[in-house]
């Protein structure tokens, strides 16, 4: 009778495993999949520019300018991006829609959205697996840092 190690020794073909996990994810979609808004393009640039101007003004009020701190623009840009992402993430999280709501809004009575998502999930899972497999040859060297050190562990006296 095969045990767990026997099953792990001969992995299923990649597409079979991807089908299984894809099916699980699609089954969980009504509960776990949410659609969120995402601001893109000029909206991102506009909000980031606002925060850059805001930060620049706040720093100048405290005596920090490009003249006194020549590299301050890097700080300003980095923090403006963080503030922009904070705002957009907060708004996006407050406006989530479940798959059944999207289907109702779009009039998708044949669940085409779910089929499209299934196809995309399966394709991306297989791509991720192939990418991992292509790099597997370098793993032993990378994982050597996680090996158990030889000999008795320090502080474990018997």
* Number of beta strands: 2
Spatial gap, N to C terminus: 40 Å
Question: How much β-strand is present in the residues?
Answer: under 5%
Overall outline: flat
User: Largest sheet, order of strands side by side?
Assistant: 1-2
Label the structural class: mainly alpha
- Give the count of helical stretches: 7
Order of helices and strands: HHEHHEHHH
The low-pLDDT segments are 1-8
What is the share of helical residues?
55-70%
Radius of gyration, in angstroms, nearest whole number: 25 Å
Write down the oligomeric state. Answer: single chain
Q: Mean pLDDT, rounded to whole units?
A: 85
**Biggest sheet character:** 2 strands, antiparallel
What does this protein structure show overall?
- By secondary structure, the chain is mainly α.
- Helix content is 66%, strand content 4%.
- The chain has a two-stranded antiparallel ribbon with strand order 1-2.
- The longest helix has 24 residues, at 112-135.
- The chain starts with a helix and ends in a 15-residue tail after the last helix.
């Amino acid at each position: 009778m095969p045990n767990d190690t026997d099953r792990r020794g001969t992995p299923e073909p990649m597409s079979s495993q991807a089908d299984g996990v894809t099916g699980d994810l699609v089954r969980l979609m009504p509960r776990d999949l949410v659609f969120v808004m995402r601001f893109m393009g000029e909206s991102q640039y506009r909000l980031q520019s606002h925060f850059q101007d805001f930060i620049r003004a706040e720093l100048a009020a405290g005596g920090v300018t490009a003249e006194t701190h020549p590299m301050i623009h890097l700080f300003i840009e980095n923090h403006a991006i963080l503030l922009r992402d904070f705002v957009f993430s907060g708004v996006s999280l407050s406006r989530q829609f479940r798959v059944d709501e999207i289907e109702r809004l779009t009039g998708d009575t044949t669940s085409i959205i779910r089929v499209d998502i299934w196809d995309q999930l399966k394709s991306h899972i297989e791509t991720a697996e192939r990418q991992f497999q292509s790099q597997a040859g370098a793993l032993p060297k990378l994982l050597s840092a996680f090996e158990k050190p030889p000999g008795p562990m320090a502080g474990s006296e018997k």
